[in-house]
């Protein structure tokens, strides 16, 4: 069993508990901190969008289609479906001569409620552009279009089916994952992600290593190293694109810029880069709870960056309020998590 | 650590795990099945609404104000804020000469999305009547009005502040909880619930005992025994009121009628009565996940009722689909849970 990382308090008593595992690793694979089982494979889901976007830059597609920082940041995003996200994804597709019909991520209503409500009030319907993965998929479509151009085939036909594991685009994405993590993902347990692309279960140790490599360039090909730096810089320059209003990743990267790259994934996963320390991080909450993944990420970031930043604290000690706005409890880091990082603070 | 009760599969691999504890107890306190720590106090939240509604019937308020089965079922509900729920709660208040302003549960948008969207499309705003607890609170207001009438005081003034622990209504509710569970709740850890009334942390063993007593009447005062039976019958007669469209509790009680009373609570709690077996059940998922609470409840109900019912199986083995409707995984009972009830099947 993994240790409890986050406790949920109500009226001073512990109401719920979130167990999990985390690995903080340097670019040579040296373990800085380990909690729980870091060798058990976990599906990293959207937490590896940075790795999945490496081919977009390394292939030359980002340059060929003149992608801006905002567009590159959106390629690494799980966004809230706000108007800026939707128009940015649509802009990339328009430049390729394509529309939302090219996206194979599925239709999803914006996760940000006020945006959803104003769409409903105006009688609008959700499209694949509102899907939290529309930026990543627009990036995949860019790679496909460049491949089609190089191969002299018709882009729209070549793009079709790009979410399948055997499509040339997804092969490039899988190869980038294998190269960065040092694990042959073709031999890893495979599932289908929310946006219909394959997701591979990998050890937290290997995921943390991949992100340490993305922070330092060590252990990556020159093309991937350059791509990782450019993507991190793009997200730091346009952090709104990676999440949205009131989203943890956006708020934290608005505060810390290039000092911290972090990305949430579904089912309680986080991956992060701390470039100045040469460290990568990967964590998984056993039960899949996002609230605990964010609180753990915030706790670790406070310790490793030696920061008393209020945004981080507002997540590590998230206040819980009821329907009348009354303070009823909070999250807090559990003793094992506090102890593991006590020497870092 | 409590055992894993539910596993979440993706592509054949376990992606997430939910640990928890559960107690199945008879009305004399004999333990039929125990998994995990059943003596650690847990906040039962909305899973004890049946117990909190005992004074509504036992005080005579339900008769004094002519409450129907639907209105009594709504008093035990965490409803989805659908039109039938809202009009039923409003009807109770109207009979008392009061309006939604009397409710102190706070404003909540309907949890059922199509209802929320059609309200937004019509430009309507949420009210306290849409709060999932509006039926329970309407019941509290009934009790307050009867107390005011008996005491010769002005009802509206007497009602005000009924959510406070020291208000005469809430004292009656706490006394009912203490009597049914056999635990003096005034000495238990106390928190504030989502709807602003006190919630007390109690052992699963004591909660399961209370529900076994509600199924048999044994160990309860005559008034509470009668009230428990009437409330169970009301919910069986009007199961839509206790939840709503596509809600577990509603669907299960539509199928099983008086054979099974079950009620979910926030943060992964369930309480249930199996009257024909003379058993009560209480369970808590450590991490607070509703999906795991429902899957565990469904697994136990299948075993104890020796039922192959499809509704129960659709929750114990909940299918997970992505944004394109593709089957990506499912829930399933974990080995410890399966083993614990193997002899019951």
The biggest beta sheet of chain A reads: 8 strands, antiparallel
Which band does the percent of strand residues of chain A land in? 15-25%
Tally of helical runs of chain A = 15
State the oligomer: homodimer
The pLDDT mean of chain A sits at 97
Give the N-terminus to C-terminus distance of chain A in angstroms: 27 Å
Estimate percent helicity of chain A.
40-55%
Residue ranges of chain A: pLDDT <50 for 5 or more in a row?
none
Biggest chain pair interface: A-B, 49 and 49 residues
Please state the structural category of chain A.
alpha+beta
Principal-axis shape of chain A: globular
**What is the number of E strands of chain A?**
12
Structural Rg of chain A: 20 Å
Q: Note the run of SSEs of chain A as H and E.
A: EEEEHHHHHHHHHEEEHHHEEEHHEEH
Your description of this structure?
The structure is a homodimer of 345-residue chains. In chain A, strands 1, 2, 3, 8, 9, 10, 11 and 12 form an eight-stranded antiparallel sheet that branches. Chain A is built from 15 helices and twelve strands. The mean pLDDT of chain A is 97. Chain A has helices at residues 49-52, 54-58, 61-64, 69-75, 83-95, 113-121, 134-151, 155-159, 168-181, 204-216, 222-237, 248-256, 290-304, 310-316, 335-340; strands at 4-10, 13-26, 31-35, 41-42, 190-192, 198-200, 202-203, 261-265, 269-274, 279-285, 319-321, 327-333. In chain A, 62% of the residues are buried. With 345 residues, the first copy, chain A, is of the alpha+beta class. In chain A, α4 packs across α7 and α4 packs across α11. Helix content of chain A is 42%, strand content 19%. Chain A is globular and about 65 Å long. At the A-B interface, β2, β4, α6 and β5 of A face β2, β4, α6 and β5 of B.
């Amino acid at each position: 069993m993994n240790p409890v990382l986050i406790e949920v308090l109500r009226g001073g008593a512990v109401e719920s508990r979130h167990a999990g595992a985390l690995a903080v690793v340097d670019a040579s694979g040296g373990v800085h901190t380990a909690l729980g089982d870091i060798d058990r494979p976990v599906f990293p889901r959207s937490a590896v969008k940075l790795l999945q976007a490496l081919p977009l830059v390394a292939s030359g597609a980002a340059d060929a289609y003149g992608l801006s920082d905002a567009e590159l940041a959106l390629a690494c995003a799980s966004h809230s479906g706000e108007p800026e996200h939707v128009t940015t994804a649509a802009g990339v597709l328009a430049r390729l001569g394509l529309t939302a019909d090219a996206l194979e991520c599925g239709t999803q209503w914006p996760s940000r409620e006020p945006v959803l409500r104003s769409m409903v009030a105006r009688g609008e319907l959700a499209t694949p552009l509102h899907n939290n993965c529309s930026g990543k998929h627009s990036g995949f479509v860019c790679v496909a279009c460049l491949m089609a151009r190089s191969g002299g085939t018709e882009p729209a036909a070549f793009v079709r089916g790009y979410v399948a594991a055997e499509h040339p685009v997804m092969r490039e994405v899988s190869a980038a994952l294998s190269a960065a993590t040092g694990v042959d993902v073709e031999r890893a347990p495979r599932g289908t992600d929310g946006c219909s692309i394959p997701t591979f279960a990998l050890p937290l140790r290997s995921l943390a290593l991949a992100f340490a490599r993305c922070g330092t360039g060590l252990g990556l090909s020159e093309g991937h190293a350059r791509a990782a730096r450019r993507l991190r810089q793009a997200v730091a320059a346009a952090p709104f694109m990676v999440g949205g209003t009131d989203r943890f990743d956006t708020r934290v990267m608005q505060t810390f810029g290039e000092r911290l790259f972090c990305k949430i994934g579904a089912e309680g996963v986080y991956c992060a880069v701390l470039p100045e320390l040469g460290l990568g991080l990967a964590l998984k909450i056993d039960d899949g709870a996002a609230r605990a993944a964010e609180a753990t990420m915030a706790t670790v970031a406070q310790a490793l960056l030696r920061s008393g930043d209020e945004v981080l604290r507002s997540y590590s000690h998230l206040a819980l309020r009821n329907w009348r706005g009354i303070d009823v409890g909070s999250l807090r880091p559990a003793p094992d998590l506090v102890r593991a990082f006590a020497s870092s603070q």
